[in-house]
Amino acid sequence: MSILKTLLLITLCLGGTAMGRPQVDQASTIPPPTLATDTPSVNTPSKGTQTSAFSSKTGEASPLDKADVDSWLDGYLPFALNTSDIPGAVVVVVKDGAILTVRGFGYADVEKALPVDGKRTLFRPGSVSKLVTWTAVMQLVEQGRLDLDADINRYLDFKIPPRAGKPVTMREMMMHTAGFEESAKYLLVYDKSNFIPLSRLMKKRVPERIFDSGTTPAYSNYATALAGYVVERISGISFDDYVEQRIFAPLEMRTATFRQPLPAGLAPLMAKGYAKPGQPSLGFEIVNPAPAGAMSASGVDMANFMIAHLQGGEFNGRRILSTETTALMHDSSLEKVNPASLLPPLNRMQLGFFDTNVNGRKVIAHLGDTEAFHTALHLFMNEGVGLYLSVNSGGREDASNTLRNAIFHDFADRYFPDTAPNDGQVEESQAKRHAQMMVGTWESSRRSESSFFSLFNLFGQVKVQLNDKGELLIPALLGPNQRPREWVEIAPFIWRDRNGEDRIAAKVVGDRVVRWSMDFMSPFMVFDRVPALRNSAWILPIGGASIVVMLLTALSMPVGWIVRRRHRLAHHLQGHARKVALAVQLSAIACLVVLAGWGGIVASLEATLDNATDVLDSWMWILQIGGLITFLTGLVASTRNLQLAFKHGQGYTRKIWSVLFLAATLLLTYLLAAFNLFSMSVSY
């Protein structure tokens, strides 16, 4: 998914490793440990265990008991981990208020060949941590100390500005419709000196609200962290203390914690995370907006949490929520939801959880990602079953994302099969017309608009096209086979994946499609049409051509000098015209240096979010101030150069090139301004 993936995993992740460290070949240098019959178990694949990533949706259900699940996992996970280049995983299944199985696979520490213990090894579930935060919020709602629909400023000691006269509410924060733009600075760090207390982080920079309240799903880590801060403010104790006393203790989640770094007693249990396959661990990840993704937990911890939510807020006779409050959290009332934020019939956001319905079953879930750990939690509500998977590396080519999606669907197909969906059919000519209406360039609602981070939006825009049959084609949405999915229209402006259950639905206003999304992302992200002036369809090719013009202009300086020196030629320009031409060449070099500098900033953030700290601030100030001066100087020089080229009757080549250089400078100046590279700010 390239840049689209980057935007999705900004939840907590941009992926990367430190440069210059020795590589570790996980597949060849570590001998397989002894196979255990229960947890911990580290299984290695043998011939014949290479099960398909997809099962039949039809037929009789397999018995959902420990023996069958363990046998299935033994044939599934070892092969999946080895072929994906993922060191280790924990898998948990709960059923009817009890743990069915807790399994560890692979390595918690590759270098030491330490196996994953499913019951004891700690993993980082990333944004699955949000479910704990939202549970804490609902406890306060149940106690009458927090109103879901009140202005959130009622509970804060600083102000969240209104947008269009409307404030932010806790309900909107829980449903990711508060309208906040993406925020990434200090999101995830490794150096504990870069840890920022929650209170200071919330006030350090309030992200711009780029959507009106309740109208647009746009996933926000800031909003969840803010909810955790509200928990602190109302309860009068730290967020870490609150969840330990009010959630972890009654649920017997004995090794779960949000504390960073880990307490000394838990540190030996922590699995190492590997941001890049085959490379060393970068260490313990510190998530500064802690309520949004800082939890560390074992498989048993997460099993108890799932059981409590499946049992209506109760675990072993102890309640963390009432049955009524839990039901509200799992299936929020549509009366309180702005219909503008929905794309029926796609999955929707609940109060913290989101739908991942499958095979006609009601399923609520959450996913989570840090740079190294990748997690999925699914609750089959009517069946009383929970499934949890966490792995300690993204694996090869984003394999962890494919794995967690595949194991969820394969688990559902094995134990809760359903007949193929009874889909309708749209007449062929109408289907082609609807597909044509979808064609264009789209951008995710989860984005930044006020900082240089908006540059990622430019490269992350999604193209919707038609295939040679006139059917919908979205190259960025790949199936598990890494090929674009095939979409079949089953109802007007609703398409289903020909080889799966995922659907796309579009919102139509008049005769124009204005918004669309897909089942797995519709609860927290939609796609809107890109404004013409920010459309990558023309910006990227013309911007690239402008850089080429700059580069050739810069090269003309040394090349011209060499040619004149070798052939003893005089410069064809004299006096003022020669000085202006030199100024143009020097400005081209300076502009290229500025662009290269911004390329370095982007590359450093793509490498690891650990660089999204003050470490880049000095360079960003230099590039913003120097860049503005450089490009304004370039505009003055290129404008004067154009005047002289036409005034003194120069040749056509010089005239044409002077026009091209001015146009290139104008376009690049516009792009840097439009995408906030002159914003004079180091907040993002």
Descriptive account of the structure:
- The protein has 684 residues and is of the alpha+beta class.
- It has 16 helices and 19 strands.
- The strands form 4 sheets. It has an 8-stranded antiparallel beta sheet. It has a 7-stranded antiparallel beta sheet with strand order 3-2-1-11-10-9-8, with helices on both faces.
- A hairpin with a 2-residue loop joins strand 17 (503-509) and strand 18 (512-518).
- Helix 1 (2-8) packs across helix 12 (454-460) and helix 14 (575-607) runs antiparallel to helix 15.
What is the average of the pLDDT values?
90
Most strands sheet: 8 strands, antiparallel
Name the shape in a single word: globular
Number of strands: 19
Strand line-up in the sheet with most strands: 14-13-12-19-18-17-16-15
End-to-end distance:
23 Å
What is the percent of helical residues?
A: 25-40%
Rg, Å, rounded? 28 Å
Judged by helices, strands and strand pairing, the structural class is alpha+beta
Report low-confidence residues grouped into runs of 5 or more: 1-56
Q: In DSSP terms, counting alpha (H) and pi (I) runs of 4 or more, how many helices?
A: 16
Percent of sequence in beta strands: 5-15%
